[in-house]
Amino acid sequence: MSVHVISIDQYFDKDLLAKLYKRANDFSKLPLADYPKPLQHLTLATVFFEPSTRTRLSFETAIQNLSGQLITVENAGDFSSAKKGESLEDTILTINAYADGIVMRHPQIGAAKQAAKVSRVPIINAGDGGGEHPTQALLDLYSIQQCRGKIDGLSIGLVGDLLNGRTIHSLVQLLAQYHVTIYLIAPDSLQLPAKYLKLLKSNGATIHQVDNWDKALGKVDVLYMTRVQKERFKFVEDYLAIKDSFILTPKQVAKMKKEAIILHPLPRVNEIDPAVDQDPRAKYFEQVKNGLYVRMALLEYLFKH
Ligand code: NCD
Predict the structure, then answer these.
(1) What residues have CB less than 8 Å from 289, skipping those under 6 apart?
(2) Helix or strand or coil: residue 103?
(3) What is the pLDDT of residues 189-218, one digit of tens each?
């Protein structure tokens, strides 16, 4: 049976998270020369129809660190046969002939699910438009756990494009498993879709929806910043009008708790002033590194389970 990773709500319960995070932590401590070789003779394909730096390179590093092999189409929209009009299904069936697993990013919501319908090998959703980005949520939660030692009891501020941000959509579904207070900090037009709000509420999370963060900054233990997703806007004027709603500068960081942490899935555009990088609370580049270990743990789990 193929174990696809399409949505974070599939089977990532607390037990599995604990298992993956323990393994990720093990990997983070091992020198590269001592890594096991669990994925020898296994080939992973990375097929990205949208730009990526971290997600693609971390999966590619992860498979190679575990002694697997890699084939890749970096700019699949232009350089795969999709450009000639091939259907997604045919592209996926073709890659099935070469690879034991496919990491795919695509601009359309639901594309990963569509691919999984025909694929005999696992599809890992590396972002489907404004839908989900489950593996990012895995590393985001891991980063919170690593920095704060727990999830229960934390106050978490989610900032920026909560409407279109697929990392947000996956992360809130993981957070819904815990006792958390969530500040949804966004302009009204970019607030969290109703279905995720409903899920958080029905799981007992305390929710504050705000479009001004002055009061929230001093209350959160985790500030999760996001980029306004320009590519999801129909009219560039609408994007321009809203893109600078929340910009984190040292002045804002000064209002935050001493032990709070700042995360961002990256890339940042201008929503975090680079001057903030010097602050010990800025953890977004550690978060990048965590992505490698969590994806190693995930690949090992999916292919050796
Ligand atoms: C995010 C994505 O692609 O959804 N990036 C990532 O994978 N780390 C966030 C974004 O593009 O804003």
Answers:
(1) 28
(2) strand
(3) 999 999 999 999 999 999 999 999 999 999
Distance CA 4, CA 166 (A): 18
Residue type, 305: H
> Is 141 part of a structural domain of the chain?
yes
Say yes or no: 150 and 122 in one domain. Answer: no
How is residue 62 written in tokens? 């992860």
Residues spanned by the domain of 152: 134-287
Q: What is the DSSP string of 29-89?
A: HS-GGG---TTTT-EEEEEESS--SHHHHHHHHHHHHTT-EEEEETTHHHHSGGGGT--HH
Number of H-type helices and E-type strands within the chain: 11, 9
Per the structure, how many domains does the chain have? 2
Residue 231 exposed, middle or buried by CB count within 10 Å (0-12, 13-18, 19+)? exposed
Q: Give the lowest-confidence range in 67-76, 139-148, 162-171, 276-285.
A: 67-76
User: Is there an atom of ligand 1 within 6 Å of 265 CB?
Assistant: yes
Residue nearest to atom 7 of ligand 1 (CA): 55
CATH of the domain at 19: 3.40.50.1370
Q: Is the CB of 80 within 6 Å of ligand 1?
A: no
Same domain, 97 and 42: yes
Sorted by sequence, the CB contacts under 8 Å of residue 202 that are 6+ apart come out as none
Q: Are residues 141 and 209 in the same domain?
A: yes
pTM of the model: 0.97
Q: Are residues 198 and 226 in the same domain?
A: yes
Catalytic residue flag (residue 84): yes
In testing the pocket of ligand 1, which one of 136, 142, 230 has its CB within 8 Å of the most ligand atoms?
136
232 catalytic? Reply is no
**Annotated catalytic residue, options 4, 46, 91, 105:** 105
Confidence of residue 2 (pLDDT cuts 50, 70, 90): low
